[in-house]
Each structure stands twice: as C-alpha cells, then as structure tokens.
Amino acid sequence: MAYLTLAELEDLALPPGAQGALGAAVLGQLIERGSREADVYLRARYTLPLLSWGDDLRGWVADLVAFHAVRRIGVNPEADDYRVFKEASEHAHRQLRAVSQRLIHPEVQDSAKLSRAPRMASLPLRRW
Length: 128
Hints:
By secondary structure, the protein is mostly helical. Helix content is 55%, strand content 3%.
C-alpha cells in the first residue's frame, strides 16, 4: 500500500527535475518501494494494512523515496544535494525505528480492530 501519491511526493521531497528524469511510472515504483520499507518497521507495532495515516508517515516515506530517486538519477555522492537527501532518508529510518520501538506515536489507524473472527448472536436478545 502506497503511503503517498506522486503529487504529494513532489510537494514534500522530490528534487526538481526528478519527474522529468525518471518518469511517473518509475517514481510510482519508488513510492511502492519506500512504502514497503516503512512497512518493515510498522509491522512490528501495527496490524497492516493501515487504514489511515498522517503527514508524519507520509513525510518519512517521501524522504525515503526522494533518496532512492536521487540515487537512481545518478547524483554525485560527494555533492551537497546528495548528502541532504541521504541525511533526510537516514532521519526517516530513525523515526520509523522509533515507531517500531514505541518511542514515538505517529497518526495512524491500523486494521487490528477489523476482526476476522466470526460473530455470534442469538434471538431473542436478552437485556440483562
């Protein structure tokens, strides 16, 4: 499940010119990859799939995806731009690790309450 759209990625973290260099299909694949990376941490704490999530998770995934995009474009690893995206990606990993360790609490609703257990009822309903 993707935690952000291409438009949100462009607004939050995508470097200028990345969409033209990579194309929407490749960026869509990178969004899926970044979302799966986040799931590695999230599944330690939540029942997936998530039903809803906030800007905190969306931003962390955007940082992961932007770094993958920069690497895919082929930016020089010695360049300042590369370092900025790498640091943002490392920060996102630290935040997601903290989520899995229950140190921080993002705005999410997991699917744990959607029980797959059978429900039983009897008639007449008793009021006691």
